[in-house]
Design brief:
The complex is a heterotrimer of chains A (about 475), B (about 525) and C (about 280).
Chain A lengths: L1 H4 L4 H25 L13 H38 L2 H4 L3 H17 L7 H38 L7 H41 L2 H6 L14 H32 L2 H16 L2 H29 L15 H26 L2 H9 L4 H30 L2 H6 L17 H9 L8 H35 L1
Chain B lengths: L11 H47 E10 L2 H4 L7 H6 L1 H15 L7 H8 L8 H9 L7 E7 L2 H8 L6 E4 L5 E6 L2 E5 L5 H14 L7 E6 L2 E9 L2 E8 L11 E5 L10 H12 L3 E5 L2 H4 L12 H32 L4 H13 L4 H15 L7 H25 L3 H9 L4 H29 L3 H5 L20 H9 L6 H30 L4
Antiparallel strand pairs in B: 1-2, 1-10, 3-9, 4-5, 5-8, 6-7, 6-9, 7-8
Helix pairs in contact in B: 1-19, 11-14, 11-16, 11-18, 13-14, 14-16, 15-16, 16-19, 18-19
Chain C lengths: L1 H18 L9 E10 L2 E11 L4 E5 L6 H8 L9 E9 L2 E2 L7 H7 E4 L10 H12 L5 H14 L3 H4 L12 H14 L4 E5 L7 H14 L4 E5 L3 H7 L2 E6 L2 E7 H6 L4 H7 L5
Parallel strand pairs in C: 3-8, 3-9, 6-7, 7-8
Antiparallel strand pairs in C: 1-2, 1-4, 4-5, 9-10
Helix pairs in contact in C: 4-5, 4-7, 5-7, 7-8
Classes of the chains: A mainly alpha (about 475), B alpha+beta (about 525), C alpha/beta (about 280).
Chain lengths: ~475, ~525, ~280
Amino acid sequence: MFQQLGHLPMGWLMLALLAMLASGAFFVGRVQAERFSGPAAARIHSRPNYHGYFVAMWTFVPALIVALGYGLMGESLVRSQLVSELPANFLKIPGVELSVYLDAVSRAAVHNDYTGADRVFAAITNRYLEIQGVVKLSAIGLALLGATVGFVLSRRRIVPGFRARNRVEAGIELMLFLCAAIAIATTVGIIASLLYESLRFFAEIPFWDFLFGTRWNAQTSAEFGALPLFFGTFMIALIAMLIAAPVGLFAAIYLSEYAGPKVRGWVKPILEILAGIPTVVYGFFALLVVAPSIRSLAVWINTTLISSGLTSEPLLAAQPTSALAAGLVMGIMVIPFVSSLSDDVINAVPQTLRDAAYAMGATKSETVKHVVLPAALPGIIASLLLAVSRAIGETMIVVMAAGQRARISADPTADLTTITVQIVALLTGETEFDSPKTLSAFALGLVLFAVTLVFNLIALRVVQKYREKYD
Amino acid sequence: MTDVVQGPFRNEKALRRLKKRRAADVRFRTYGLSAIAFALLALSLLVASIGFQAVSAATYHVVRFDVVLDPQVIAPDGEDTPADISRNVDGFYSLLRSDLLETFPQAADDRLSRLRLGDLVTRLAVLPVARTVAENPTRIGRSMKITVPLNDDLDLYLKGAISKDARVHIGEIASVSETAQNEVSLSGPSAFRGLEAMISTLRAEDGDAVDARSVLLTSGSSTGRVTHLETGAAHVTMLTGSADAFRGARPVARIIALPETERNVSDQQIAWTLALKEMGRISRVPHFSLLTNTDSTYPEIAGALAAIVGSLLTMLVTAFIAIPVGIFASIYLEEFAPRNRLTEIIEVNINNLAAVPSIVFGLLGAAVFLGFFGLPRSAPLVGGLVLALMTLPTIIIASRAALKSVPPSIRAAALGVGASKMQSVFHHVLPLAGPGILTGAILGMARALGETAPLLLIGMVAFVADVPSSPTDEATALPVLIFSWSTNAERAWEPMTAAVIVILLMFLVTMNGIVVLLRRRFERRW
Amino acid sequence: METTVTESRENASSELSVDQGEGLTFPRIECRNINVFYGDKQAIFDISLSIPDRAVTALIGPSGCGKSTFLRCLNRMNDTIESCKVTGEIIMDGENINNPDIDPVLLRSRVGMVFQKPNPFPKSIYDNIAYGPRIHGLADSREDLDAMVEKSLRRAGLWEEVKDRLTSPGNSLSGGQQQRLCIARAIAVRPEVILMDEPCSALDPVATARIEELIDELRKRYCIVIVTHSMQQAARVSQRTAFFHLGELVEMGDTDQIFTNPRERRTEDYITGRFG
């Protein structure tokens, strides 16, 4: 019987259950409040609706907690129970194979598809379903129990003088607070998970070897020197900023100082479009249009140099994926980060400073160069920092167009790899969760997070101080 | 010399200096203008190159067959249940192959050319046909019109994407004489002059590489390859059809720019394709299967349906979580939170989270949702959760700004008539901030729709052939599909990836368009 | 009182004689038929007046009457506003500076301006003063520049207070000091005319008094035009006064005459406080 129960569609069931419990409790509570009689009834504090909400809250929340608990922990519970019942020879199987096997068991159970299964597999799958049935039944039972207890207890509080509305609103405020707390929980979660996995990594690979080692062969779990990755990230970000900084800054200057409102009205949104294009599209463009062109250009340079006798061997690497291709496209993507914020800060410089400069006979460009830009400098620096942070953390463009070779090279037409590319490479494909290979991805993630955090914090501080100066 | 009257504003030295300063002024302005021009140019280049490729994939070539559904082949004894029929790819495919062999009997001679002929159509392309027949078993035994996509490389060839051919019209062929098995000699006075001229032009441009190129002569549905060209005569190896078709005709010559050794399609296959086209059995139709098929290893039958549904499911989960939580969180932070050190830290934290690289969220998802909670890999549920966490700060910031813009007088008025704080927020402030919150939410969703990196890390990279039906099924998403297709080797994937990009961009444009409309309609200036 | 009147009349007549061109100097600035439009709205209606050299001319009137707008015509600052159109002639040293041939950049090095709210550049005190000479190429060497900075600061009466901290930022000074810095900055490019747009309205009385002293000193060298909404200030510092109302020039004359014996009814109403 439990085996049949194992097929219960818990998602829909729980939703229906919660909905029914909540609305039922609401009606009961409200009716109860409406039925107040006697002298106290005239001084009722809150409207019957709120009494209804109160009862509904206390009924719904316990059931919700159970449902969430089942949703998050249910599968692991079932699996750990199943594993503990498995015969001894199963426990010798390495972790990753075991979880793949269990995935297959789970899939077979869900689709009721036993084709190609041997008797052992079928038996395990049946047992799996049984355990699932038990867990599911218990979850439903527990939810109902919690709901009932809450229901009964809350109904007792319903009297005319009861401040139901205050209680309900306190409950709502708690919920609002919890939602805000999720944002904190996210940061805590990020830091905790990165640190936890990284510490496990550093238990096996020394910290300094990681930070300063120059050979990266993570796929074979051989060497974990991340310096070439840092170099690759830095180089591509540098190329990107070489494009985005001047273009973004001058575009911002033109838009705020020279352009009329019509031009501004058109150009500014178009620049925003650059920021809205998904990075995978940029990656496609980089891979299929930019990288081949750079390669052809590099090949042409090589042959021209050789044929004119200046060099005897090809100077440039001319790879099909290159740092230059990724950097160029990334630079284009990052332009609006520089131009938007710079435009805002340049606009915020008080007109009276410009007037002072004009009144002394300065030309427009002199005014901008010597008076406006220095005044807007903190904001511009902040925008550059944010842009660099974005460039460092970018993934898809480099995954598609930069390359996989971890090395340090000054040649921009060579393929380089970056931190983000390696994280993707390490975590896609076979993932054994405990090997140094996978853990190194988290160590890289930690470095990435730390560096971008520093940039972001500095940028935010600079913007804050700048606002204080001019407000 | 000193009595030349010069006003104080026309002093020579000052004017010279002024000229330099003015020149610097103009230069400065030009820098600004060229920066904008550069950015716009880059954007146009991006859009144009992708659009151009996408247009190529918007239509494709299909081949028409009219075959009899032989029950022996399709539903042999022991395998004639509908389930068996719908899986009988080999059976249906052999029907098509037999038809092709009937059309081009010369190919039957050796195994290699039979194989090459069969390559004109992909095996798996018959699956939809098999399913249709399985649903209507009464059709077995009768004839049926079948349309299947043409081989992807030949499709590209017909679109001109593989090789830029030079076409020359040949003059009237006076006589045709057979010299050997399949070899003919065509002669006609001044018939080949155009061809010779074209070849010498090409030779002037590309040198001796021209000799490796194939020259095909086509007349009607017969095609032959030129082996030797002289003045007034050409020696041709017949590839398909008969030499008689050339008698008295004006054939068309094709000089295929890419030598046969460098392409995936042989001259023979091109000849067959041209013949089928001439017979009216090949036509170019809209590529609807791009939207209705699921992924496949063959480009001509691959489609983005599974990815579209997967993206939709993921967006549903993200919206379901991020929008309510984001709005509630922003309400708490803006209206209820006490102004103390803790809330300041929360603010800084949220601002920072909005700028954290998306791949870090992927790491979080992999470690916590997959590792700790054991949620199913590659499921829209997990993808939605990760993207929700990523979008949350953006929605909170936008909603806070919307709430902040509602003037305090509204709140004061509500409290003044005896509403509680909670009531004033939910009944008065929130509706007024509604449009701003909504636009923030849509923009957040638009960003989440285009994100790829976090989804890769939670396992959405796998090849998914079935359309997901629930958030816990294995699925993929549009941006992930774009990523995986763009790394495929065959040429045909490029235009198709571009087409899927266009689909994704259309979703984004629609969402941003809605935002612009909302802003215009509901923007209030207090 | 009478002698004062006589004295000022003598001065006035000598200046009148200046106006009539009998002497060697001309009026420094001569304005003819000035009209100013902001888009379709007209702000200044057909104003003609002369501004004498080495004297302070005050422009007074109620707020919004166009005094600042008119002042800004004199150094073509209105050019920086898109929708603004100025017609008429402004003759300075025999040339009409409204002529599009004249480069306003050069004009503004000869006609300086001090604004209502002190607006030092976000630079050091030294660089604030040195900026003008630098862009106009007025100094040949570092020593030249140092000397110019010192001279300007001395003339503005600020040297003693800041000579030890020339590298500290311009906005680290007090309000009054900042305004004197701005005056020094305007002087540094060696203008012939200094325009002041309500220079003391953002300052306290002590600072105001210092600035007024300074103006009195400066008028020995420069032609000064000052817009002020304080009649007392106009009476204190100026020799000639022009009364503006609703974009028109109502009356112009010697300061004493305007304040004691105005010819126009409107002038009298304004001065006696009946409006404005």
